[in-house]
Amino acid sequence: MKKQFFVSFVIFLVVFAYAVIRYNIIKGTPWIELPLFISNKAISLSAVVFIALSYALGSLARFWPKTFVSALGLRKFFGLLGFGLAAIHGLISLLIFSPAYYPKFFLVGGKLNLVGELSMLFGVLAFFIFALVAISSIPAVVKSIEPGRWLAVQRFGYLGLILIFFHVFVMGLAGWLKPAGWPGGLLPISLVAAIVIALALLLKIAAMVFPKETNEIKV
Ligand code: HEM
Q: How far apart are CA 190 and CA 171, in angstroms?
């Protein structure tokens, strides 16, 4: 099995186990909700991890070229994998999008509240951006765009990450501020996602501020 498939499988398994332990085992969410509701949490966090990883590899290669330059070719793999999972996440979310599953997004009358409206807006906009980035990585499209423009489209993905940060920030903040209520003391998945995104963005900022070491590597 190719290394990247194995690494991806292990990452997904760890994230999935985290969701099952936090929600089904400790919090007592019924097992009947595992196929969609709980899996969707694991799928969405994995999407964030893979997309963040695909962007972080460039910055990591700048600081530790010996370790990471050889992995730069995996950026496309992780990015597309993350995008695919984000698409599945969007689809599952819409399938079960109801006050019964997500009371925090709805008003009593059944319309969305501000948290629901804002967080869904950020999610949809981010998905649109990731779709553009994914389309731009199709070989025929790569050839048809001037390299500088192509890089600009790829970098647009950072805006997608920032939007996902707000997607989870808006929906998660109230829960983040109540650690006493976290099942088993385990961080909410939305908070884990926000931390992963913040790390990827900080790495990028660090790579921009300290660009010297390996000038030949484009991130
Ligand atoms: C069509 C666009 C999208 C829709 C409709 C959507 C919908 C949702 C919904 C309903 C939730 C709440 C899930 C829950 O609490 O169980 C959620 C959470 C989340 N979404 Fe999205 N989303 C979209 C795009 C994205 C994208 C593009 C990403 C990442 C690349 C993403 C990552 C996340 C993460 C990490 C969570 C937190 C899960 C949790 O706290 O359990 N979403 N999204």
A: 8
Q: What are phi and psi of 110, to 5 degrees?
A: 105, -10
Token reading at 85? 């999972």
Considering the domain 2-209 in this protein, what is its CATH number? 1.20.120
Is the CB of 52 within 6 Å of ligand 1? no
| 184 CA distance to ligand 1 middle (Å) | 23
Identify the residue whose C-alpha is closest to ligand 1 atom 33: 44
Instruction: Tell me the pTM.
Output: 0.94
Q: Domain boundaries in the chain?
A: 2-209
69 close to 61: Cβ distance less than 8 angstroms: yes
What gap in Å lies between CA 147 and CA 161, rounded to an integer? 22
Q: Are 76 and 137 within 8 A, CB to CB? A: yes
Q: What is the mean predicted confidence (pLDDT) over 38-49?
A: 98
Query: For 77-120, what is each residue's pLDDT tens digit?
Result: 999 999 999 999 999 999 999 999 999 999 999 999 999 999 99
Model confidence at 219: pLDDT above 90 = no
Q: How far is it, in rounded angstroms, from Cα 49 to Cα 113?
A: 28
Taking CA atoms only, the protein residue closest to ligand 1 atom 21 is 123
Residues 6+ apart with CB under 8 A from 16: 39, 42, 46
Task: Check pocket membership of 49 for ligand 1, CB cut-off 6 A.
Answer: no
Sequence-separated (6 or more) residues with CB below 8 Å from residue 201: 158, 161, 162, 165
Beta carbon of 86 within 6 Å of any ligand 1 atom = yes
